[in-house]
């Protein structure tokens, strides 16, 4: 035990001696470099030699500001705006309630009209054929034969074998709740 | 002084026709482009309502208006008009339709003969805009409901009443005038009678 | 251009003057308005609290985009709340509601039982009911505009407005002023019109409240003419009085009225006709104007014709004539 203690004290003193020796004298490694300084090749050393040609070419030279970065990311509202934009030109159709763009026909209403128009066009072309067209065309739906011959004079009648659609009436301003003409009003009699 | 009235010399259209030509690309060059337009005008006269791209409809509309306007102005005895109709209408039975149906229909119109609407397209849609081109007075269902004819709307009620009142005042003033005249006229006759 | 700017300047100065007077003279009138509003608020709160346990009703909505059934709260939910369930467009566009297909109902009046509901705007095919409500609202708004425009020294007292009659060509509000020979200049008329436009721009909600005869008397105790009219009005309606409020302006009216002041579009106040002398210093005046709802465009020549017609004295019952119920019933 006392022997171990003695040994440890000895090593500590040795370490201390080494430490002071380092401070006093110059270490051997540094001396090596000092001796290398006399080499003539390192005399014209400059940063250019290390960098060479084109070493910095693909790297940003300046920092891009926050404003620039944001503009590149989102665009500029008045020129090009990259994120989604809200559409302000939408209105709901007064007839059907579906939304449509301002100044453009309502897609729902137009679809109905387009289908009916195509049917009518087909029927008209079928009946006209390739003969010279010299008369106005009047389209009559099923059960519409109440027009007077004078009204149909000078016009060509095309009949479509289906009832007239509800929304496509002759007079849209006419009241739809009018009493039909064929119902007769019967007054009660003999009620005693 | 003997200058001719310019409006009598040429057709006065009721639509603004843009003079620049629209981009209607075609492999056949300008001729193919014109053929496209002729096909469109023919289809319009034939079907009276067609749906197509906006550019093509817009340019063809001007030609259709001009054709109808010339037909109304000159009639079917005019050689140049007949040549024009022959050029624009590819199906020749439509030449009859132009002079025998469309001319009587539009003779007394003081609005344009055609109407054009922007047609809807699916969102987000292709780049080209769609449109509907139609002749007025066609037998098909209407595309837009005209609300201005509803006499019950507030401004129409006000205007109708103003019109009625104006007429009433006119009639009253006329009646007053008549009454004043009849009051004045008996006097001389009486004087004459006394003279005799 | 120069004349336009001149006109603008003139009317602007007139308006500024009127406003300055108003701010200087904050006397009895503002105090009575304040107490009236307080009473209105209290009664409104009391009625809301009196609802108690919430009861559900089924409201069948008929119209665009489709017919639906909404479950709403009895005595709490209004047609406006129903419109909120449908879409923003319905809220913005609807001026009046039609309950059970025939009864016109204010947009901000709570529903009272299960019913069918239609929302009306000015473009429907049969707009008689909405037009009438609009015309009545114009008269009511004219009262509010006058109260804002006149200073206290003018001794303005609102008298009443006859039932709406669109065919007469003008809406009317009868007032009593402390001047026997007031001949309004164009700039003054324009200033009152500007007040109307300002009210419209403020988008004020028009509230409806039914109160007892006693409370109404308490509210209008400062107003001589209103308290004179109150007994006969209350008699017609089982001693209940219907009040309408717009901002801080409260008036008696049978209603219905449109939902908001926003619906007033083009508006001109055109004439102030002296009707009769009242006492030794005051006089009755009848103010008249013409207006169109928002979204209605009329070219200036046609509108000019309407303006010209609206300048003539309206033939509705005059304020100094005896109060005839029959006539009133016919008109409104």
TrEMBL record, chain A:
<dbReference type="GO" id="GO:0006412">
    <property type="term" value="P:translation"/>
</dbReference>
<keyword id="KW-0689">Ribosomal protein</keyword>
<dbReference type="GO" id="GO:0003735">
    <property type="term" value="F:structural constituent of ribosome"/>
</dbReference>
<keyword id="KW-0687">Ribonucleoprotein</keyword>
<comment type="similarity">
    <text>Belongs to the bacterial ribosomal protein bL32 family.</text>
</comment>
<comment type="function">
    <text>Component of the mitochondrial large ribosomal subunit (mt-LSU). The mitochondrial ribosome (mitoribosome) is a large ribonucleoprotein complex responsible for the synthesis of proteins inside mitochondria.</text>
</comment>
<keyword id="KW-0809">Transit peptide</keyword>
<protein>
    <recommendedName>
        <fullName>Large ribosomal subunit protein bL32m</fullName>
    </recommendedName>
</protein>
<dbReference type="InterPro" id="IPR011332">
    <property type="entry name" value="Ribosomal_zn-bd"/>
</dbReference>
<dbReference type="GO" id="GO:0005762">
    <property type="term" value="C:mitochondrial large ribosomal subunit"/>
</dbReference>
<dbReference type="InterPro" id="IPR051991">
    <property type="entry name" value="Mitoribosomal_protein_bL32"/>
</dbReference>
<keyword id="KW-0496">Mitochondrion</keyword>
Automatic annotation (TrEMBL), chain B:
<dbReference type="GO" id="GO:0006412">
    <property type="term" value="P:translation"/>
</dbReference>
<keyword id="KW-0689">Ribosomal protein</keyword>
<dbReference type="Pfam" id="PF01196">
    <property type="entry name" value="Ribosomal_L17"/>
</dbReference>
<keyword id="KW-0687">Ribonucleoprotein</keyword>
<feature type="region of interest" description="Disordered">
    <location>
        <begin position="177"/>
        <end position="196"/>
    </location>
</feature>
<dbReference type="GO" id="GO:0003735">
    <property type="term" value="F:structural constituent of ribosome"/>
</dbReference>
<comment type="similarity">
    <text>Belongs to the bacterial ribosomal protein bL17 family.</text>
</comment>
<dbReference type="GO" id="GO:0005762">
    <property type="term" value="C:mitochondrial large ribosomal subunit"/>
</dbReference>
<dbReference type="InterPro" id="IPR000456">
    <property type="entry name" value="Ribosomal_bL17"/>
</dbReference>
<feature type="compositionally biased region" description="Basic and acidic residues">
    <location>
        <begin position="184"/>
        <end position="196"/>
    </location>
</feature>
<dbReference type="InterPro" id="IPR036373">
    <property type="entry name" value="Ribosomal_bL17_sf"/>
</dbReference>
<protein>
    <recommendedName>
        <fullName>Large ribosomal subunit protein bL17m</fullName>
    </recommendedName>
</protein>
From TrEMBL, chain C:
<feature type="domain" description="TGS">
    <location>
        <begin position="55"/>
        <end position="121"/>
    </location>
</feature>
<protein>
    <recommendedName>
        <fullName>Large ribosomal subunit protein mL39</fullName>
    </recommendedName>
</protein>
<dbReference type="GO" id="GO:0000166">
    <property type="term" value="F:nucleotide binding"/>
</dbReference>
<dbReference type="GO" id="GO:0003723">
    <property type="term" value="F:RNA binding"/>
</dbReference>
<dbReference type="GO" id="GO:0005840">
    <property type="term" value="C:ribosome"/>
</dbReference>
<dbReference type="GO" id="GO:0005739">
    <property type="term" value="C:mitochondrion"/>
</dbReference>
<keyword id="KW-0496">Mitochondrion</keyword>
<dbReference type="InterPro" id="IPR012675">
    <property type="entry name" value="Beta-grasp_dom_sf"/>
</dbReference>
<dbReference type="InterPro" id="IPR004095">
    <property type="entry name" value="TGS"/>
</dbReference>
<dbReference type="InterPro" id="IPR050062">
    <property type="entry name" value="Pro-tRNA_synthetase"/>
</dbReference>
<comment type="similarity">
    <text>Belongs to the mitochondrion-specific ribosomal protein mL39 family.</text>
</comment>
<dbReference type="GO" id="GO:1990904">
    <property type="term" value="C:ribonucleoprotein complex"/>
</dbReference>
<keyword id="KW-0689">Ribosomal protein</keyword>
<keyword id="KW-0687">Ribonucleoprotein</keyword>
<dbReference type="Pfam" id="PF02824">
    <property type="entry name" value="TGS"/>
</dbReference>
